[in-house]
Amino acid sequence: ETKRAVARLRQDFPILHRTVHGKPLVYLDNAATSQKPQCVIECEARYYAQLNANIHRGVHSLSQQATEAYEAARDTVRRFIHTERREEIVFVRGTTEAINLVATSYGQGLRPGDEILITEMEHHSNIVPWQLLCERSGAVLRVAPIDDAGELRLDAFERLLGPATRLVALTHLSNALGTINPVKRLVALAHAAGAVVLVDGAQAVAHLPVDVQELDCDFYAFSGHKLYGPTGIGVLYGKAALLDAMPPWQGGGDMIREVTFARTSYNDLPYKFEAGTPHIAGGIALGAAIDYVGMVGLPAIAAHEHALLAYATEQAAGMAGLRLIGTARDKASILSFTVEGVHPHDVGTILDDEGVAVRTGHHCAMPVMAHFGVPATVRASFALYNTVEEVDVLLRAIRRAQEVFG
Ligand code: PMP
Fold first, then answer.
1. Does residue 406 surpass a pLDDT of 80?
2. Interval between CA 176 and ligand 1 midpoint (Å)
C-alpha cells in the first residue's frame, strides 16, 4: 500500500525520472535540498506568466492579485507552524538569513558578559552569527556538549543555563547526525532561566509536524528549499511581542511608514523586517509546497521515512567497515557514516557513478566532525519519495566502493 502510494508520489517529481551516468537517479541528498513537485514548479511559472507585479504598492489589478497571493502564502505558513498571528511570519531568504536577522536585531540588546548558549551539534549558520554578535556586543558564547550517540547532554545543558544566559539557539533536527532535540523541554528550561530561544528548524519542517505554540519557542527559522519549495525563500517566526520590540535590521522600501530626512517611522509587523522587493514567486510557491506536504500528510511522511531509516540503519550496522555517526534514540531521516579505509569523497564518487546522490563532507558542522574525530562523513538523507529499493542501490554502491578501494 505504502509502496504504491510512494510510486504515485514519485510521479509528481519530474527530476526523479532523469538518469545520471546512464543510471536512474537515486536522490539521497535531501538534507541539502529536496526536489520539487510539479505543482511547485508550475506555481512559480504561473506567477511569472500570469501574475507578475510588485506587491504592497500598486493599485492596479496585477499588483493587488500578486499581493493577495503572497499574503495568502503567509497565511499558509502561519497555519503550517500553528500560530494564529500572521504578523509573526517574516519572509526571509532562508534559515541563514532568519538567524542573522535575530542576531543583528534582537542582538542589539545584548551587553558585555551576557551569554548565548548553543549546542555542539549546530550547523555553521547557527554558530557564526552568534560569534559575530559576541564580537560586536562583548557577549560570551557557551556550547552545550553532545555525547557519543550524538545526543545533547541535558545535564550539561541545564548546568550551562544561568542568570547571564540571554539567548539559547539550538537545532530541532541535526543535519549532520539526524538527532531530534527535545525542544519543548529545552525551551521550558531556558525560559525558567530567563532566556529567549531560537530554534533552527531547517531540517525539521520537512520531517516532523511543528507547532510553535506547543514548543513555546520565541523564534523558529526554516528554509523553503528543504521543504519541497524554491530556494531563496524562508521564514522567521517570532513571537509578536518580541518582534515588535526589536529594531529593524535592513532599511529600504516597504519597511517604512513615513520617511523624511529628519526622521523615519517604521511599518507594522511583519513588514518592518521585510525591506525591499521580496522573492514574491518564491513565497507563493512555498505556499504551494506546504499545501503539497499537507496533502501527503506529515505523519505519513514521517512514518515512511522512519521505516526507510530503520531499514538502512539495520543493514548498514551489519556491514563490516562501516561506522555510523549519530545513533541517537530519537532520530529522523539521516544516515551519516564513514567507510573504513575509504575517504568519504571517494565513496561519494563511486556512489555518483551508480546514480546515487549523497552528501560527503563536514555538512557545515565542523564541530560535530571534530567530536567524532573524522574530517568528513557520507550522508544519505531521505525524503517522502525515497524507496527501499533505492536504499538497496545505496548499500550495493557502498560495497562497490569497499571493493574498489579496499
Ligand atoms: N541549519 C541547518 C540544521 C541546516 O541543515 C541548514 C542547511 N544545510 C541550515 C541551517 C542553513 O539553511 P540555508 O542554507 O537554507 O539558509
1. no
2. 11
